[in-house]
Known about the structure:
10 strands
Amino acid sequence: TGSGKTYTMTGEDGSETRGLIPRAVNFLFEEMASLEARGWEFSARASFLEIYNEQIRDLLDDSGEQKQHTVKMAKDGMQFISNLQELTVESSEDLAELMQVALTNRAVATSEMNERSSRSHSVCRITLVGTRGSTQIQSTINMVDLAGSERLSSPSKAEIDLAPLDERAALHENASKRQAETLAINKSLSALASVIQAVRVKSNHVPYRDSKLTYVLQDALGKDSKCLMMVNVSPRTDCLNETLCSLRFASKVNDTTRGPAKRNITTDKPKRSLPSVCKPE
């Protein structure tokens, strides 16, 4: 936490301080424009979601309704998330506007839910479809801002009892909320490590369903996808243990291979391909 993961993904306005998401999107639209000169036609759809306390939330939904979002399996074997908005984008500027909406919704939640934005995993998902004649290709990119691992620390019962009487209920509520957030974050990051380890040793069973994070990213972590992870570490000496844990995890990820990703092309009816994923920790 505090090592610059969100800044790495989103950055700031300006060509030199843009984050990974705007840079990647700009590159995608430049490549699509160059391929259109060779007869290809492309469409792009985008969605933004966060996983907070093992619950999925649509960051583009301004309705205020508490919609239920669950991971489901389509007839073609690919996953989708129910009630999740997926909007058409025609330029990098369109995606930038959607990202600002997502960040604003996340920032609002921060003020209301005790730094919630740093205690949730956020996912920017872009689906691309290209056609040329009877040939169609499709792919999905997931760019993920992982919440940082947390130490389980909160005021003790004795400390709460020493607080003024009118503050004790709020302290107890905040401590319980912070504990639930920390447990959910650490559980999901542990599940991600277990999935990476299972993939690394080529286990017959990969525990994707152990957390919402790995379940949502199951297709992205599968054998037909490419995966890139960036690890952010803090230079502070009091973060040394977390830094060492992150570097050990990064070393295991670096040793994990799945072989080349398959190129999914169909010449009769559309077929959804497996996604690639890009995420820092």
